[in-house]
Amino acid sequence: VFSHIVRAPEDPILGVTVAYNKDTSPMKLNLGVGAYRTEEGKPLVLNVVRQAEQLLVNDRSRIKEYLPITGLADFNKLSAKLILGADSPAIQENRVTTVQCLSGTGSLRVGGEFLAQHYHQRTIYIPQPTWGNHTKIFALAGLSVKSYRYYDPATRGLHFQGLLEDLGSAPSGAIVLLHACAHNPTGVDPTKDQWEQIRRLMRSKGLLPFFDSAYQGFASGSLDTDAQSVRMFVADGGEVLVAQSYAKNMGLYGERVGALSIVCRNADVTSRVESQLKLVIRPMYSNPPIHGASIVATILKDRNLYHEWTLELKAMADRIIRMRQQLFDALRAKGTPGDWSHIIKQIGMFTFTGLNKEQVAFMTKEYHIYMTSDGRISMAGLSSRTVPHLTDAIHAAVTR
Ligand code: LMR
Q1: Where are the alpha helices (DSSP H) in 286-386?
Q2: Would you state the pLDDT for residue 240?
Q3: Separation of 287 CA from ligand 1 center, angstroms?
Q4: GO biological process annotations for this chain's record (predicted)?
Q5: 157 CA distance to ligand 1 centroid (A)?
Q6: Distances in Å between the alpha carbon of 362 and those of 216, 374, 381, 397?
Q7: Which residues, including other chains, have CB under 8 Å from residue 300's CB and lie 6 or more apart?
Q8: Of the residues 189, 226, 248, 340, which is catalytic?
Q9: For the chain, what are the domain ranges?
Q10: ipTM of this complex prediction, to 2 decimal places
Q11: Nearest to 37 by CA among 296, 191, 192, 253
């Protein structure tokens, strides 16, 4: 009965790792998936995560019962505070419901399904380009997916005029997916002033903001700075959705821990929204897993662990920034044709190099460097040791 099934292609991002794993060359380098590596090229478990896990193991009162449908209550409260700010009036006025979800993807999917069932406007606008999974998540949630201009290849920067025009002509009430910071894949974010213009335009047209916050603390090294865009929208009293992931900023990739918060107009609406979120979640996965959320809650509620976390986070962000500078300097020193200043201007985990599909394929074939075919490289996968190899590959790709 399954003989008609055709083989599906590998995922454009996770499939890069599949190809990398098959390569036997000692010089191979994986700059595909956005996952942090140390200077030695190794995955990193944060010291605070190890400490939190030790505390959890030692606590004999911990049990393995089901969590509520909405997840671990402490985790939800602390996650809302982290993204919205400890003194957020929306939290004080009980206008925020937060549910623990399966990392950023799960949070986006639950939010998408909720909107498809309960929101009057079923169209979502996503930036062009955006993280490859966004389109599929929202389409499968039952929303109609359209795009707005975001990136200008000519300037390798924000297409601000195009963005304003496209959102300006979106139907009233449409949902708009915004990357809270460190836009994936471009590394290009609006300035504070541009965010304010976007906010005013969206509010004047009644467009509903849905933030994807996958890199809080990772872009600038500051948790508050990276939450600024979300907080600007929440401060005006209007509705906001935000999906948070702890994959990158706590290095909890495989724990699949994240949260969806919905900020509403008043406490009564908020509790009704939460009751409906439970109906979305229950038939999907019943209730979320306990371990990752317990790690996060342990860190966020302990003053010392929290402080230590901010230092470890800043160290990761700073290493990525150093890699940008080293790659830029190396390309300049080699005289590689082109203006590579976007490498140091873009922020977050990725550089959108501007290399095309053929150049990427060449670098993979000849230099065993793995990256997504759109020319995105994960700066977090690079180290001082591998910068020269990448530089040689880019040089050869653009001069051949
Ligand atoms: C990425 O863009 O590489 C990450 O967000 C990992 C993923 O799931 O795609």
Answers
A1: 291-301, 303-334, 342-345, 357-367
A2: 98
A3: 24
A4: amino acid metabolic process; formation of cytoplasmic translation initiation complex
A5: 21
A6: 34, 13, 19, 7
A7: 75, 78, 79, 81, 82, 306
A8: 248
A9: 14-44+318-399, 66-301
A10: 0.94
A11: 253
Tell me the per-residue pLDDT of 369-382, one tens digit each, with 9 for 90 and over: 999 999 999 999 99
Per-residue pLDDT tens digits for 135-159: 999 999 999 999 999 999 999 999 9
For residue 345, the Cα-to-chain-centroid distance in whole angstroms is: 19
Collect the ranges in the chain with pLDDT lower than 50.
none
The pLDDT score that the predictor gives to residue 185 is: 96
Fold observed for domain 14-44+318-399: Aspartate Aminotransferase, domain 1 (3.90.1150)
Output the pLDDT for position 53. 98
Decide whether any atom of ligand 1 lies within 6 Å of the 184 Cβ: yes
Measure 34 CA to ligand 1 centroid, in angstroms: 5
What is the residue whose two structure tokens read 């994936």?
184
- Predicted model pTM: 0.96
Task: Please tell me if the CB atom of residue 13 comes closer than 6 angstroms to any atom of ligand 1.
Answer: yes
Instruction: Classify 121 as helix, strand or coil.
Output: coil
Note the pLDDT of residue 255: 98
CA 232, 86, 57: angle at the middle one, nearest 5? Answer: 130
Structure confidence at residue 125 (pLDDT): 98
Pick the CATH number of 66-301 from 3.90.1640.30, 2.60.260.20, 3.60.110.10, 3.40.640.10: 3.40.640.10
pLDDT of residue 372: 95
Q: Is the dihedral of CA 326, 331, 332, 338 positive or negative?
A: negative
Q: Which amino acid is at 293?
A: A
User: How far does the centroid of ligand 1 lie from the alpha carbon of residue 43, in Å?
Assistant: 15
Judge contact between 175 and 124, C-beta under 8 A.
yes
pLDDT of residue 300: 98
Q: From atom 4 of ligand 1, which residue's Cα is the shortest distance away?
A: 34
Of 189, 212, 226, 374, the active-site residue reads 212
Ligand 1 in reach of 34 Cβ (< 6 A): yes
What is the token pair recorded at 218?
Answer: 């990772």
Residue 369: Cβ within 10 Å count: 26
pLDDT confidence of residue 81: 98
Look at ligand 1, atom 9, and give the residue with the nearest C-alpha.
13
What atom in ligand 1 is closest to the CA of residue 34?
Answer: 3
Question: Which of the listed residues 11, 13, 17 should we mutate to test ligand 1's pocket, taking the one with most ligand atoms within 8 A of CB?
Answer: 13
DSSP structure class, residue 2: -
Catalytic status, residue 212: yes
**Locate tokens 């999974």: which residue?**
133
Say how many Å lie between the CA of residue 307 and the centre of ligand 1: 27
